[in-house]
Amino acid sequence: MAVTIKDIAKAAGVSYSTVSRALNGIGAADSEKRQRILQIAEEMGYMPNRAAISLKKSRSYNIGLYFSTIGKMSSPFVLHDVLTGIYSVTGSKYNVMVKGIDMYETGTLNPSYCDGVIVLSQKNEDLLFMEEVHEKGIPMVIICRTVFFDAPNVTTDEAEAMTKIMDYLIENGHRDICVIEGSRGLDSTRERRRGWRASAIRHGLDPDRIPSYEGNYRYDSGYKAARRILEDHSPTAILCFNDEMAFGARNAIYEKGLTVPGDISLTGFDNWDMSGYANMQLTTVERNMGEIARTGTRILLRRLDEGIVDNRRIYLDNRLVVRETVKRIGG
Description:
With 331 residues, the chain is an alpha/beta fold. 42% of the residues lie in helices and 15% in strands. The strands form 3 sheets. The protein has a 6-stranded parallel β-sheet with strand order 2-1-3-4-5-11, with helices on both faces. β1, α5 and β2 form a beta-alpha-beta unit.
């Protein structure tokens, strides 16, 4: 059986990305670590995939956008904004192929199909796909999450963003707050939960006593969660993990004969297009997916067109967007 980069990494006690960089001459040529890896590779009889290497010498001018399955993502609007951002940078020079990571089968990735890959990732299971991309030497950018991986990451601090909006509710006098969260198992859900809980603690509230309900980032789940909230509690505010669920919650509030923000304040996350011009002027946090995608695509194209390797982790700012759905209560 042929020796792989993973075999060498295990023998050397380093990550597969470190081995890949050493074998591809990235980094200091005379470093002790690189020389040790090359020696181990030679002793193990490692033979690089010459077919893949020769294929990569010719350009396909295709870029693959691989994403966590649409049903698991925060909203289909996210994918739209990401694609718009990518196309604004690639222009007509590159074709963009869009595929779901959940439909990918291990070992099927062909380096000749695309010059580079943008990964819109939300799940830890996606790491297996990223490992194969890296092992096959395909340039990659990871967006919308932080992965401790030898590849550029472009994202926002979602915990910090959710802290901002929870702070805003509490500073406007709200203590009886309910939360509609997103799908379990997603990075965005974990980070946003960490943010609102940190804010609650800082303001002297026990986050375990703040009712939270699971949604799935879709309109209907926000509607159903808000109905359950209104049956079980009498909140002055509902914090939603995205704008789409906030719009669903708004309708559940209206069905109860209540108003936003007269009876219940409401917040979202993402600042998707409808949030600013629909009949509900939603207070939210802007996570600019288009700018995240543009930044990641620029980094990838610099690698493809100029040979510039930039493996930074880049965090773009989040902006609190105050509109008309939060009422100040108390003093």
